């Protein structure tokens, strides 16, 4: 389980995924300020005939301000309402680029976030040193070319808008040149825009790739927490400074010898191993749902260390882990380990954290992937009385389904706030018997029943259907994927299609 999109430092920020206001006033203020500054500089240039060198700087600052607004809208951070982001993004785009369209820019930028540091338009981050400034000056053109190359796979309306903007804005510029105002256009629009783009490409794209890994600053913080609005960055930096402790995924603390108190079969292949935590170690073994412990044991003469998700409740004096038999260590744990045995366990570490104010969390688990998800979802529901959770749980058949009874009990206890969709790949499974046959439409079924059973794998089509209705991205705050790479990949692609930001997706990895 490695923290994928989120850094723990930012997860703990109060601002990282807090609910946005309907409209973000600082973003509106920045838009208005940039517009006013640009208008003032234009007035100075055209009416007061102030020399170009004096006004170009002001215009450039105004373009940078508009870029920040555009960027906020791309990440849906300009307000909770989608149309606010769409309108403001469209208004800001022509100031930032003479060739760009907002939806196309949004697609390219989010695509880049989803694919990590590998740059979609690497043209402006690589190349001979003397050529780079020229590349930065024309960064938006390269983005347009990249978008057009991908346009076959993009929605028609989005492509149409990109093409329309490609004709409209440059066409207007040509018309202005035709009226004999080429120099004014150059000074108040073209030159400042190019300078701003070059500065942004250098600062935002090129420079971060040459800094040491872990260097703090806006680009790095943004990469880890893309939806954090620009006006909360001072807080982010303060919180990062205050942050101490091991990095994500790093084990914390020394091994301690713990006594196994119970080994309970979950399925024919998996067991729940429980340890008693002695009084003196309780503080060190305090954990939050989603964390894991590392176990160490000598198996067949060789010392092995393996990590296992914690599968119990915070505050308990016991710590449970679910282990599925696949190889040497898990074979030993499921076959040989008995109550009363002692084993070395390293205190809890790593793991993804759900935001305390999430209203709706969706988990996707397959098989043993339920181990970290079960406590995460249960804790989220217990901590926030109005929170909801939906679990999409894929297993071969009922006998392979871990924690099935616990899930039924949780669904009953949380009284409609937890919904579980079981997908059974063995279509002869007893839970798929006629009385439990799914309703024709998954979303309708979800609305009336807390637990449903579906034959077959969870397909991209089914996910799309869910995202189109009950699990619409606007109604879900966080997604946790705890499944093998192929299924997690399908889910990530479908979420990406629906513009779910990478920051809202946590991936639990078991290797
Ligand atoms: C953060 C984190 C959390 C995790 N949480 C859990 C959890 O909650 N529950 C859980 O069960 N696991 C979890 N894992 C995985 C766990 O750490 C081990 O990797 C897993 O138990 C396998 O270890 P092993 O020694 O049994 O397998 P290994 O012996 O290391 O084998 C690894 C792979 O090789 C294959 N293999 C082994 N022997 C053979 C053979 N003779 N022939 C062919 N193939 C073979 C196995 O099928 C397996 O796929 C987690 C991993 C991480 C990183």
Number of helices: 17
Helix content: 40-55%
Number of strands: 12
| Uncertain regions spanning at least 5 consecutive residues | 1-17, 242-251
State the separation between the terminal residues, measured CA to CA.
Answer: 7 Å
- Spatial order of the strands forming the largest sheet: 4-3-6-1-2-5
**How many structurally independent domains?**
3
Shape: elongated
Protein name: Phenylacetic acid degradation protein
Organism: Amycolatopsis taiwanensis
GO molecular function, one term: metal ion binding
Keywords: 2Fe-2S, FAD, Flavoprotein, Iron, Iron-sulfur, Membrane, Metal-binding, Oxidoreductase, Transmembrane, Transmembrane helix
Structure description:
It is built from 17 helices and 12 strands. It is elongated. With 511 residues, the protein is α/β, with parallel strands linked by helices. It is 43% helix and 16% strand. The protein has helices at 8-11, 25-46, 52-74, 82-96, 102-114, 132-137, 139-150, 156-178, 182-206, 218-224, 233-242, 328-335, 370-383, 404-413, 442-448, 460-468, 485-497, and strands at 256-265, 270-276, 292-299, 302-309, 318-324, 342-349, 360-366, 388-395, 418-424, 451-455, 478-482, 505-507. The structure holds flavin-adenine dinucleotide (FAD). The site of flavin-adenine dinucleotide (FAD) has 21 residues, from β4, β5 and α12.
Brief synopsis:
InterPro entries: Cbr1-like_FAD-bd_dom, FAD-bd_FR_type, FNR_nucleotide-bd, MRET, OxRdtase_FAD/NAD-bd, Riboflavin_synthase-like_b-brl. The chain is of the alpha/beta class and 511 residues long.
């Amino acid at each position: 389980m490695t923290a994928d999109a989120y850094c723990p430092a930012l997860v703990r920020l109060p601002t990282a995924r807090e609910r946005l206001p309907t409209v973000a006033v600082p973003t509106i203020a920045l838009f208005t300020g940039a517009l006013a500054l640009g208008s003032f500089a234009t007035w100075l240039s055209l009416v007061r005939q102030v020399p170009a060198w004096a006004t170009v700087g002001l215009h450039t600052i105004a373009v940078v301000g508009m870029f920040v607004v555009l960027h906020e809208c791309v990440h849906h951070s300009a307000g909770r309402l989608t149309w606010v982001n769409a309108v403001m993004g469209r208004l800001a785009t022509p100031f930032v680029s003479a060739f760009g369209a907002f939806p196309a820019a949004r697609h390219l930028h989010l695509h880049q976030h989803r694919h990590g540091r590998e740059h979609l338009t690497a043209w402006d981050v690589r190349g001979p040193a003397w050529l780079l400034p020229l590349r930065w000056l024309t960064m938006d053109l390269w983005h347009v070319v990249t978008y057009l190359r991908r346009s076959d796979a993009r929605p028609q309306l989005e492509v149409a808008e990109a093409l329309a903007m490609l004709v409209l804005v440059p066409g207007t510029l040509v018309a202005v040149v035709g009226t004999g105002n080429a120099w004014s256009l150059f000074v108040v629009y073209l030159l400042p825009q190019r300078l701003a783009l070059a500065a942004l490409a250098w600062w935002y794209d090129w420079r971060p790739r040459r800094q040491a890994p872990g260097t703090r600053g806006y680009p790095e913080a943004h990469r880890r927490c893309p939806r954090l609005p620009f006006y909360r960055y001072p807080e982010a930096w303060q919180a990062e400074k205050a942050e101490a402790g091991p990095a994500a995924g790093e084990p914390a603390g020394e091994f301690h010898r713990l006594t196994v108190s119970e080994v309970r079969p979950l399925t024919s292949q998996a067991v729940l191993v429980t340890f008693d935590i002695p009084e003196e170690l309780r503080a060190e073994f305090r954990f939050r749902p989603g964390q894991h412990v590392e176990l160490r044991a000598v198996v067949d003469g060789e010392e092995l260390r393996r990590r296992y998700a914690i599968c119990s409740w915070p505050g308990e004096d016991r710590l449970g882990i679910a282990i599925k038999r696949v190889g040497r260590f898990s074979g030993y744990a499921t076959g040989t380990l008995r109550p009363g045995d002692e084993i070395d366990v390293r205190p809890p570490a790593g793991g993804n954290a759900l935001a305390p104010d999430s209203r709706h969390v969706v988990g996707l688990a397959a098989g043993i992937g339920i181990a970290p998800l079960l406590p995460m979802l249960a804790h989220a529901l217990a901590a926030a009385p109005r929170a909801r959770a939906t679990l999409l749980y894929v297993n071969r058949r009922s006998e392979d389904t871990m924690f099935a009874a616990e899930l039924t009990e949780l669904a009953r206890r949380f009284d409609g706030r937890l919904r579980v969709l079981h997908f059974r790949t063995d279509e002869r499974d007893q839970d798929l018997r006629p009385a439990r046959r799914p309703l024709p439409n998954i979303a309708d079924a979800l609305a009336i029943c807390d637990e449903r059973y579906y034959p077959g794998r969870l397909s991209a089509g089914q996910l799309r259907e869910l995202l189109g209705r009950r699990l619409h991205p606007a109604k879900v705050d966080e997604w946790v994927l705890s499944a093998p790479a192929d299924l997690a990949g399908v889910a990530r692609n479908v979420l990406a299609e629906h513009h779910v930001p990478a920051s809202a997706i946590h991936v639990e990895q078991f290797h």
